[in-house]
Design goal:
- The structure is a single chain.
- By secondary structure, this protein is mostly helical.
- The chain has one domain (2-122): Cytochrome Bc1 Complex, Chain D, domain 2 (Orthogonal Bundle).
- 40% of the residues lie in helices and 0% in strands.
- The protein has helices at 2-14, 53-68, 89-98, 112-122.
- The longest helix is centred in the middle third of the chain and has 16 residues, at 53-68.
- It is globular.
Length: 126
């Protein structure tokens, strides 16, 4: 799965598709397997109380769309639009940070705020 995601990120770079999650000052070791900046250890496990759905849509399109499809309709990964896991915060954050089935754990790969932003956008979908 990581090879697939790495290949997709590489193709995006070769095609000139911007990766908005990566800072221009970032170095190769600063990003995780999905091209998302790694957290500092102080960020890991933090769960913000709210997210920004506008940022979340951009973040989703830059990383999650590959497996979960456009607008969360599903693909390699399950449908997220209208998925009940979004309304159960404990299960949601457990899946995000620990992974489940083919989804890799995102703990240390994505910040809690980025995931809260993505979740806020997903909650707007039906």
């Amino acid at each position: 799965m990581r090879k697939l995601l790495s290949s997709i990120v590489l193709w995006m770079a070769l095609l000139g598709i911007p990766a908005p999650l990566i800072s221009p000052d970032a170095h190769a070791g600063d990003v995780g397997a999905q091209g998302i900046p790694k957290n500092s250890s102080s960020d890991i496990g933090q769960k913000p109380t709210s997210g920004d759905s506008n940022r979340g849509e951009k973040l989703y399109e830059a990383s999650c769309i590959v497996c979960h499809g456009p607008r969360g309709t599903g693909g390699i990964g399950p449908r997220l639009a209208g998925n009940s896991v979004l309304s159960n915060e404990k299960i949601f954050w457990t899946v995000v940070y620990e992974g489940q089935h083919a989804m890799p754990p995102l703990n240390g790969v994505i910040t809690g705020q980025q995931m809260a932003d993505i979740r806020a956008w997903l909650l707007t979908l039906r």
